[in-house]
Automatic annotation (TrEMBL):
PROSITE patterns: ALDOLASE_KDPG_KHG_1, ALDOLASE_KDPG_KHG_2. Signal peptide: none annotated. Keywords: Carbohydrate metabolism, Lyase, Schiff base. PANTHER family: 2-DEHYDRO-3-DEOXY-6-PHOSPHOGALACTONATE ALDOLASE-RELATED (PTHR30246:SF1), 2-KETO-3-DEOXY-6-PHOSPHOGLUCONATE ALDOLASE (PTHR30246). Pfam families: Aldolase (PF01081). Belongs to the KHG/KDPG aldolase family. Its EC number is 4.1.2.14. This is 2-dehydro-3-deoxy-phosphogluconate aldolase. SUPFAM superfamilies: Aldolase. Homotrimer. It comes from Streptomyces rubrolavendulae. One of its GO terms (molecular function) is 2-dehydro-3-deoxy-phosphogluconate aldolase activity.
Length: 240
């Protein structure tokens, strides 16, 4: 599996690499991180968001960054300056938050890695656009209005691109991925808690394979997938 190069913002990179789903995990045991990441890569999803919700999260990110170079590992549930610093120090190559504050956005700006700050309203999306941030997480996607809500934002805010997460399932994902302002969808359904508890890596691989086969999200306006060259993942990360 070709590693996803981060020579552009996260959603653009995932879209260019035809990765439609960003797997989100809550890990209780850091020792599960490497086999999990390998199963995702084997299933065709070379990306992983480890939520900073457990004491194991930073060690999990560290392990994947060191041992699974084909997996682009990032941190989710980043809600503080400390979370930003700890995640980047552990090797997170992108950061995701459920919501946005000025303090958190300033820290994300300074982090040097691509970020997906969270929004759930038009006003929050406009506030991010005002800062020049065009890629954002839409959270909690299902509860906040689902595909219909994002479809309604595409008219007035065509430059904003979203990763809907929270309540997204294998069944609801296609409804989001068909929208012009969705780059990819995120969720825990690819590596759900019960499957992780069983350490059923074959099941993760098969869920990943099914997710990877979903039709991809829309590339950024003006960019066709075939025009994007895959560059080395060791290249310097761009600022957003
Ligand atoms: O905002 C964050 O950083 C989060 O960690 C939120 C998670 O992305 C969702 O809670 C995943 O939601 P489900 O796929 O419905 O389980």
């Amino acid at each position: 599996m070709t590693p996803v190069p981060l020579s552009q913002p996260l959603l653009a990179a995932l879209s260019s690499a035809a990765v439609p789903v960003l797997p989100v995990v809550v890990l209780e045991d850091a020792a599960d991180a490497v086999p999990l990441a390998r199963a995702l890569v084997a299933g065709g999803l070379p990306v992983l968001e480890v939520t900073l919700r457990t004491p194991a999260a930073l060690d999990a990110i560290r392990a994947v960054a060191a041992e699974v170079p084909d997996c682009l590992v990032g941190a989710g549930t980043v809600v503080s300056e400390r979370g930003v610093a700890d995640a980047v120090a552990a090797g997170a190559r992108f950061l995701v938050s459920p919501g946005s504050t000025r303090r958190l956005l300033d820290a994300m700006d300074d982090s040097g890695v691509p970020c997906l700050p969270g929004v759930s309203t038009a006003s929050e999306a406009v506030a991010l656009l005002e800062r020049g941030v065009r890629e954002m997480k839409f959270f909690p996607a299902g509860a906040a209005g689902g595909p219909a809500y994002l479809a309604a934002l595409a008219g007035p805010l065509p430059e904003a691109r979203f990763c809907p997460t929270g309540g997204v399932t294998a069944e609801s994902a296609p409804g989001y991925l068909g929208l012009p302002n969705v780059g990819c969808v995120g969720g825990t359904w690819v590596a759900p808690p019960a499957v992780l508890a069983d350490r059923d890596w074959a099941r993760v691989e098969s869920l990943a394979r099914a997710a990877a086969s979903l039709a991809g999200g829309a590339p950024p306006a003006g960019q066709r997938r075939c025009e994007v060259s895959l560059r080395s993942r060791t290249e310097a990360l761009p600022s957003r």
